[in-house]
Every structure is written in structure tokens, then in C-alpha cells.
Write a sequence for this structure.
């Protein structure tokens, strides 16, 4: 996809994706990546199809060779705006944080409002577009690291294991301890 856009004259093409949209706790993290058109990163694919070790290795390569930026929406923003709007806002801020600005943005799943540059929503983009796959990896690694940091602050919930998603252990911890400051109050798993 990026190469087709470059042939049409869009020199810098960004891919954007987010991580943490469906979690009960922690931020939504969005990343935007402009890959170096002269290089190839072997093994790029949707972050959900990679092991943690593969994501970490690719993260180092992506952040060492590409232009990238991240933005996040904390739990309070998710509760105030709703997860969809908070995710779109984080995606917009990540894309706009790229220097220089990209000529075109490919975004996983949705068009981003308030983005004053050409864009295309790509359904399943993290499996169809290298720059979106790279963005999915950057967002996932940064969010996972934040969830491990939050676990170090408050280990009662096991964020280091489930990264804030609604596993049985996480739901049981919420039932036992209640919500922490990093839980989304607007998210209620069925079993609570």
C-alpha cells in the first residue's frame, strides 16, 4: 500500500494503529510510523500474531530505522469521551506528532477526524500494510511496558501478566480489591 501511494507522489506515508482499546485498565496507546522506503524490516506483521520477544526485537528495529510517534489516552479520557473517540484522538495526536508531517496516513480501521492530510481507513490494516503493522508493534510494546510499570506500582491486579485485559484473574482481582486509579470506570465485564 505504501509503495502504491509513493508511486502516486506521496513521499512520506504514515501507518497508524492503537493498542489497549478493549482493556479494562490502562491507557489506549496510539502509534504512527513512517517506514524508511529504502529498507525492509523482515517479520513485520500484526502485533497480535507475534510473541512478546518478537515484538520487542521488531520494536528496536522499527524505532531505530523509522520515524515514529506515540500518543495515549488515559483511563479518564476513555471514560469521559468513550473508547472510540479517545482512540481516534490519540491516533490524530500521534500522526500530527510526526516530524516532518507525513504526506498521507493509512489508519487501521477508521478515518481520523480533524486530520488535515489525506488519509485512508484500512480494515485489517495491521495485516495488510507494513507501516500499520509497525505502528501496531510500537503501540503494543509501549503499552505493555506501561502496564508492567503500573504493576510495579500496584501488584494486586497482575497487570504484568494480562496487561489490563479482562482475564479471569483480573476480574477476580477487581471483585476483591475494587477498581484502581488506572481502571476504566465505563468498562464493566459481565461477570462483575
Amino acid at each position: 500500500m505504501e509503495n502504491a501511494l509513493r508511486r502516486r507522489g506521496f513521499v512520506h506515508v504514515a501507518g497508524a494503529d492503537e493498542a489497549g482499546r478493549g482493556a479494562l485498565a490502562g491507557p489506549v496507546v496510539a502509534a504512527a510510523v513512517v517506514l524508511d522506503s529504502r529498507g525492509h524490516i523482515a517479520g513485520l506483521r500484526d502485533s497480535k500474531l507475534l510473541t512478546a520477544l518478537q515484538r520487542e526485537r521488531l520494536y528496536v528495529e522499527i524505532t531505530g530505522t523509522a520515524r515514529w510517534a506515540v500518543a495515549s489516552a488515559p483511563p479518564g479520557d476513555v471514560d469521559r469521551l468513550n473508547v472510540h473517540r479517545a482512540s481516534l484522538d490519540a491516533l490524530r495526536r500521534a500522526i500530527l506528532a510526526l516530524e516532518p508531517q507525513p504526506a498521507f496516513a493509512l489508519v487501521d480501521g477508521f478515518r481520523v477526524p480533524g486530520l488535515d492530510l489525506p488519509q485512508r481507513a484500512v480494515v485489517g490494516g495491521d495485516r495488510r500494510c507494513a507501516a500499520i503493522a509497525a505502528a501496531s508493534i510500537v503501540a503494543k510494546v509501549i503499552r505493555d511496558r506501561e502496564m508492567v510499570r503500573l504493576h510495579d506500582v500496584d501488584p494486586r491486579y497482575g497487570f504484568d501478566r494480562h496487561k489490563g485485559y479482562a482475564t479471569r484473574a483480573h476480574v477476580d482481582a477487581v471483585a476483591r480489591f475494587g477498581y484502581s486509579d488506572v481502571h476504566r470506570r465505563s468498562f464493566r465485564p459481565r461477570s462483575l
Observations:
- The CA atoms of residues 179 and 185 lie 8 Å apart.
- DSSP finds eight helices and five strands in the chain.
- The chain has one domain: 2-177.
